[in-house]
Every structure is written in structure tokens, then in C-alpha cells.
Write a structure and sequence with these properties.
five-stranded mixed beta sheet; 16% strand; alpha+beta; 224 residues
């Protein structure tokens, strides 16, 4: 049964207009963006399959347009619609970041990193520089690598921290393999960076590894 055959009060768009977006499920919100389903599946069914395919809503939000185009049942038009919505969400987060309003809680940090790094096909290393009150100064992608590794140079990280006049920093890098577990090299790098930044009075608050919808915190694991 297509959504057009549902009772009006059960249709996602009508529910959104009557009750507000906050009352809809993740799948219903995605369905509103998709506008229609495909043969044999309503837009809500398709949205549920997409969330399941990417592991979570965060995993779906991290997907890029190339990945969305390959998703079963989407097609180019729906992939473009969804990619546009996801990019708007990313840009809104970046606006908040520039205004220093975002990333005030560990959950907000995770959401931001999953959204910006979760779908990347190659490893990247990001620094989120903060002031003494832990307000965001800027997020900066410093290094980009291959599918499996990235070379990070402590000297360049220190230079960027000084240029930002940062008092604290959060590191993040992604694992395209989908496994959010720190390697021994990750732990050693974090230790080296912390020691180098301590010489210029910049505190390392955390290091996140992002893999799809997962975001592992070094601080929560006791690795800092």
C-alpha cells in the first residue's frame, strides 16, 4: 500500500504539518525528503531500508552522493534530493561551528564528526581548535591520506594551533574500513601530539575515530 492510500493523519507530510517535524520518526523525515517510494515500497519503507543499510541515521547522514546513487531503490533523482538535504544539514552545522555555538557536549562532537567524516572514502585527520572556554575557533582538515592511512606531522599541528591561538584541541580521523578501533599507531600518535602541544600550552581534550556511524572517544576509553 502506497502512502497515498494511508489515512491522512498517518501520512508523514500531513503529520509534519499538523504536529511539527519533531514528532516524526527518522524514517518518516527521510520519507518526506524522498517524496515518493518505488514499486512495491512506500517512501517510509525505502527510508527504513536506507537507515538499516547504513547502520543508523548518522551513517546515512555521512553518505555522499556517489554512495547514495548506488543504494538500492534510490535512483539518481532521489539520490540527488537526499544529497541536497544532507548537504544543507552539514552547512548548518558549519555555520554553528563558525559562530562558536556547536560542539558544547560530547554528543554534539560525535554528531558533527559522524556527519562530516563518516562517509569519507579516504582517511583524513581533523583538528577542532578551541579557546580557553572550549568554544570552537575552527575545525580544520590538516592531512589527507589513502584508503588505509594518513601521515600526520606534529610540527604542522602545533603551527596550526598557534595560528588559531587555540588553548585546546580535539583530534579526529576516520577509518574507511568501518572498524572504529584505535591501532597502536593511533595511540602513539596521540601521545606524541599531546606532548608537542603541551610545550605551547595547548590541551588535548580528546581524539575521536570515526567509522561510519560509530565514533570512538579516546578520553572515554582512558587512552588520554
Amino acid at each position: 500500500m502506497g502512502i497515498a492510500d494511508w489515512m491522512p493523519r498517518e501520512r508523514p507530510r500531513e503529520r509534519l504539518l499538523a504536529l511539527g517535524a519533531g514528532q516524526l520518526t527518522d524514517a518518516e523525515l527521510i520519507a518526506v525528503c524522498l517524496r515518493s517510494g518505488v514499486r512495491g515500497k512506500s517512501a517510509v519503507d525505502l527510508a527504513r531500508e536506507l537507515i538499516a543499510h547504513y547502520g543508523s541515521l548518522g551513517g546515512l547522514l555521512g553518505a555522499d552522493v556517489a554512495q547514495l546513487r548506488r543504494a538500492k531503490g534510490l535512483g539518481e533523482a532521489k539520490a540527488a534530493q537526499l544529497a541536497a538535504v544532507l548537504e544543507l544539514a552539514r552547512r548548518a552545522l558549519r555555520e554553528d561551528l563558525r559562530a562558536g555555538r556547536a560542539l558544547t557536549t560530547p554528543g554534539a562532537v560525535r554528531d558533527y564528526l559522524r556527519l562530516t567524516l563518516g562517509g569519507r572514502a579516504h582517511e583524513v585527520f581533523v583538528c577542532i581548535f578551541m579557546d580557553a572556554q572550549h568554544r570552537v575557533i575552527r575545525a580544520q582538515e590538516l592531512f589527507r591520506g589513502t584508503l588505509t592511512q594518513t601521515s600526520v606531522y606534529p610540527r604542522e599541528v602545533v603551527k596550526s594551533a598557534l595560528a588559531a591561538n587555540a588553548a585546546a584541541v580535539i583530534f579526529a580521523h576516520n577509518h574507511p574500513s568501518g572498524v572504529a578501533q584505535p591501532s597502536r599507531a593511533d595511540e602513539l600518535l596521540t601521545s606524541q601530539l599531546r606532548e608537542a602541544l603541551a610545550l605551547v600550552d595547548v590541551k588535548v581534550l580528546d581524539h575521536f575515530i570515526v567509522a561510519g556511524s560509530q565514533a570512538l572517544s579516546f578520553a572515554e576509553r582512558g587512552l588520554l
